[in-house]
Specification:
The structure is a homodimer. With about 425 residues, the first copy, chain A, is an alpha/beta fold. The first copy, chain A, has helices at about 15, 55-60, 70-80, 90-95, 115-130, 145-155, 165-170, 170-180, 195-200, 210-225, 235-255, 270-285, 305, 350-355, 365-380, 385-405, 425-430; strands at about 20, 65-70, 85-90, 100-105, 135-140, 160-165, 185-190, 225-230, 260-265, 290-300, 310-315, 320-325, 360-365, 410-415. In chain A, strand 9 (about 260-265), helix 12 (about 270-285) and strand 10 (about 290-300) form a beta-alpha-beta unit. Chain A is built from 17 helices and 14 strands.
Chain lengths: ~425, ~425
């Protein structure tokens, strides 16, 4: 068969879909500083987290095992959309006139159009296992909230979502997606929590932030009966679940007969980035490879490139453990950019740690630049990317143009974390 | 590997993606009555079509060859999204409590979210081959228009689209998708054509219809220089291109170790239905199988179930050849239902022929019923279906419930022609 045809590098699906998650912590030369109890300032104990998370989740948060089996019930749900395709961006390549080989892993084929189901399904499963009846969470752009609403409906869990007000108003479609699953969606800051009320009273049009929405979700989750909190990014366990992205990509790149020299993902809390990157970080750490790994964030919310590295709360009210991470401060309210999923003041501690170790290079792009990149990608590859994912595209284009300047055949792999069918208005405004 | 995991029945992609289109006409015991010249009333000659279509397209419209090679340039574009997944609907099955095995072929992973790219890419390629610079077309819900806009942008062809006014207003997102590719989109009836002007003058809010939009597109296409008309359904060549759906499904069902006993597709002009069905019609005709084949249309536009079988024009102005088909009359204006892609007064002559021969059973469903089916599918399978595709789902559910009543393990395969991410407002209104 014609070589040009081999664009979707999947071998038999069952050979590509992993049956184990990969835990980068098992291969790190040193661990990040531990989370601290917000009251005592002492390293957090698993039991401290029990009011917040299901026990199965807490175990995965703390595990040092290298590989964690994916339960059959979750694998069965993954198999509906995984393995996701790895695609060779031949049209984008042509339009850039670059000798670089550009590949993207397309997570937009996930049920709700993004990578978020990878952890949502796992979390809903773990919760259902121990009789949890309600999961409460926050969402920015709504990708996470809709993924959890879907997962909850599959595993018989009621889902309540605090949606950042600016996204709630920009993206009504995502709210409807959640409600169609039977989820309850509140615009945050809301009047449903003590913390939300104080902010809502000050300003009924308060744009909200992920930090505020997390506080509201935590408050409601910990006050309810058989109710727990569910988190879409940042935590070690979430990053563990997302490793399926990179594990598949590793096998698919091998099937394509190419080794990536540069890996790119966008970062908000760090989950899709870690998903694509960590299995390749392993290659750097364990196999002595020298893969360049780039995390791309918005200039409007530059935690890695301009934040401080220090202990800070994951939420605005200061209810979460203190996390050692790059932060813009828990009270930071980012501008209402369209990449709502990247509007987070902090960063996954594991990603911050890799930046500190020099293993991950951070980069920031403007909204203008990422819409330009997203539009070019759409015109050439025919997929409308989510504004979040367009950050990765913008960096991939810059890398491909650098390779052109140097006349080098670099191999670039980026994660296309989601599609933009629900962000069309943003494209209409930014064309 | 766990049997439950084998939900996406693809073997190696390159083994599933067909390299030939299948032409049902080569296996028909008798052909449908030929199209007639609108002026002379005589059977149409290929040369009569030259002002309208590219010559390569006309050749495919008339061919009696059983298999037609797919050009390498088109296969390369297909390979970005094909083979599309065949999915076992285990969650839907569970919720219905049926012993039936329900499979769906998911065309919503196509670039613009539907099956329409299968013929759009081929038509843009054929046009580019002979120096055509502009393709003009019509679109209902916008799935066809956006697929052609995408294909045109890949093959360097300017695309102009007349979009039925009611859909233009219901689905602004689809218009933006087309415009982002550089396509020109006009709301039809428009002032850009003589025919459109007469209707627009009578009523500036004229809801339009596919028949009217076709007339406008034909008028503009035939008056332009190096400009041709492109059609999204109905014609034999379009049905030929769509055969990739059923050809893949055939191999994927074999990989799943099951033979479908019932095949279901929704019908407007007939293209996605024919795509899934014709390779299985072949099994009935050539291999002596007895597969039930069901075409589902909206009650609001019931050409197969309530239309007359006679010669009629494909468009409202009477510019197209006379087609022998089930028709509600070229002046029929269907109610503004959300399944804009099914609001067509006529039917593909080949589909009408199969209904006449008793090989295809037609069925009609109400909008209420299809939104109910679509919502249940969404809640169980996690994919929001296009309202068009929900017609097929509704029939699949009824078949599965009938199997439950009889206590039989029927194998049902339906085509999920597209996703509904751009139809969320319709779901919001119909919940």
């Amino acid at each position: 068969m014609n070589r040009a045809l081999i664009k979707r590098f999947s071998a038999r699906d069952a050979e590509i879909l992993p049956s184990l998650f990969y835990n980068l912590k098992a291969d790190l030369p040193m661990l990040p500083k531990p989370p601290l109890h917000p009251g005592t300032g002492q390293p957090i104990q698993p039991s401290d987290l029990e009011p917040i998370f299901p026990k199965g989740f807490i175990a995965q948060e703390g595990t040092m095992e290298r590989y964690i089996p994916i339960p059959a019930e979750v694998l069965e749900k993954y198999a509906v959309y995984r393995p996701t395709p790895l695609i060779y961006a031949s049209n984008l390549r042509k339009s850039l006139g670059t000798p670089a080989h550009i590949f993207y892993k397309y997570e937009g084929v996930g049920p709700m159009g993004s990578h978020k189901s990878n952890t949502a399904l796992m979390q809903a499963f773990l919760a259902a296992q121990e009789g949890v009846e309600t999961l409460v969470t926050e969402t920015g752009a709504g990708q996470w909230g809709s993924a959890l609403a879907h997962a909850g409906s599959l595993f018989g869990i009621k889902v309540k979502v605090f949606m950042v007000r600016v996204s709630y108003r920009q993206k009504p479609g995502r709210r409807i997606l959640m409600e169609l699953f039977g989820a309850e969606v509140k615009e945050s800051p809301s009047e449903a929590t003590a913390f939300g009320k104080t902010l809502f009273a000050q300003d009924h049009d308060h744009p909200g932030s992920l930090g505020i929405a997390i506080s509201e979700a935590l408050e409601m989750a910990t006050q309810g009966i058989r109710s727990k909190y569910s988190i879409g990014s940042v935590s070690d366990a979430v990053l563990l679940h997302q490793s399926v992205i990179g594990l598949e990509a590793e096998k698919q790149m091998a099937a394509a007969g190419m080794e990536p020299e540069t890996i790119i993902g966008c970062v908000g809390g760090g989950s899709n980035f870690s998903g694509i990157a960590f299995p390749f970080v392993r290659k750097n750490l364990v196999e002595g490879k020298n893969i360049r790994i780039i995390a791309v964030e918005p200039e409007a919310c530059p935690s890695l490139t301009e934040g401080e590295l220090r202990y800070d709360h994951g939420d605005t009210a200061g209810m979460t453990p203190l996390l050692f991470m790059h932060t813009l401060g828990k009270d930071f309210i980012p501008a209402p950019i369209h990449a709502g999923g990247l509007r987070y003041h902090g960063m996954a501690p594991l990603v911050s740690h890799l930046v500190t170790l020099g293993i991950v290079k951070p980069k920031a792009y403007s909204q203008e630049k990422i819409f330009e990149a997203g539009s070019l990608f759409y015109k050439t590859e025919g997929i409308l990317p989510a504004p979040e994912s367009s950050h990765a595209i913008a960096a991939a284009i810059d890398e491909a143009l650098a390779a052109k300047k140097e006349g080098k055949e670099r191999v670039i792999l980026f994660n296309l974390s989601g599609h933009g069918f629900l962000d069309i208005n943003a494209y209409a405004k930014n064309r």
